[in-house]
User: Fold SNX10 protein from Dicaeum eximium.
Amino acid sequence: QEFVTVLVRDPRIQKEDSWHSYVDYEIFIHTNSICFTRKTSCVRRRYREFVWLRQRLQSNAVLIQLPELPSKTPFFNMNNPNHVDHRRQGLQEFLEKILQDALLLSDSRLHLFLQTQLSPEDMEACVSGQTKYSVADAILSFASLNRRFPVEDEESKKGKNDADSDSESSSSGLGPSDDSISCGCKASPASEES
Assistant:
């Protein structure tokens, strides 16, 4: 049976310049769905990018009522852990609902959002064919760019072999198929249940 586990976690304050800061969140995906190019990935996204994603998905799926994002409040305080966690929970619920809809899962922007660090402008260019790389190429090259050092790869394999009897072989020639080593994501208890 197919599953998609999504976790929005690890909020961090990022400085844009000396006057502006924002919070971004790690999006961790673990799946066995054939819809996804990579079975495990993590990227960091900010609230503004979620707003962009929702607008694009809504414009492509006019008949579907998309779930709401947590509201953008003028009183949001990034130094208040309760505000940040409330937003994090809302973003996770948004993605969980989106990922249950087959029509939305067919949107390339969603996959680029979840499995690459491309900007919204670059995602649009990729989806509209204005780049030299395809959506799948972008996702796979992001994975290969974000692999850890070989020593960590070996330690990860040892731990994986002890804990996981289901292993996949890689026919892509890009190295090990254990995508959890790709971007320094923390191992997730949820990802080990399957």
Summary: The CA atoms of residues 58 and 64 lie 7 Å apart. Strands lie at 4-15, 21-31, 40-46.
